[in-house]
Design goal:
2 strands; about 325 residues; single chain; two-stranded antiparallel sheet
Amino acid sequence: MIAKSFKNLEEQIEILKYKGLIINNERYAKDVLLRENYFFLNGYRHLFMYGTSDKRFIENTTFEELYSMFLFDRNIRNVLFKNLLIIENNLKSIISYQLSKKYGYREKEYLKEKNFTNRPDKRRQVKDLISKMKRQIRINSREHDATTHYANNYGYIPLWILVKVLSFGIVSEMYSILKENDQIEIAKVYHLKPENLINCLPILANYRNLCAHEDILFDNRSQKSISDTIYHQLLNIPKREDEYIYGKYDLYALLIIMKELLTNEEFKSMIIELENSVNTLDYNLSTITVEKVLNKMGFPKNWAELKNIERSYLDE
């Protein structure tokens, strides 16, 4: 394998120009490349190339177009991220309320193995999760203001405080190994069945982390797919080999999940922000269409109509 060598800004510019990208203002392009990183910006080049075998930019593609795609992805990532944080906070609050009410608010009470599923195949996972949570208590009782306050003044850290320092991934895993009755009570808040919530949470956690680390979002695909929903039917999403081609394991599937977990007002506001970002991108593109981008995202042509459909829960 040939090692990649460092390329200065001038060399980066020359590589892009060699591949057919039009750069009208080299000073501006160098400034963008320095601030945003050539590697990350170049991650959007595939949309503007003739194909996988012909890696030249489509004729008349400009640096500004490439950068507008980069900014579009950043904008939708920021919109989704702030709403994923709302979902994360809501879920943590609901779980901590349910478990504290039932098992107690001191860690020696709510971290007992008997509070979780007694399935033999989950026993190891329960032990490991409790160890992870205890580790977070040890670390954050010294480093996090709220946990330090409770540890020093009361001698314990209640679950509604601990969840603030637990990752979405840990909270997602915790839900999956709760007793069935607790899963039902928590899912009931969202009018969902536990199996639907269990399936959705890892997808949410993955996208949350992707957004937090500013990874490329628009064409990301999750490893898990979501179940068919009434939304797929109402939006007349086409099928291929009896499977919907949009809204299964793409970014649109994430929107469908978020529709179930956000309030109507929160969801509509999010879609309006996404529509504004799409319109801005459409204005800035000339060599490719915004429809090409939406297709890569897994968005059907009538994607925004999702905000106008009355919530029909995934378990119905």
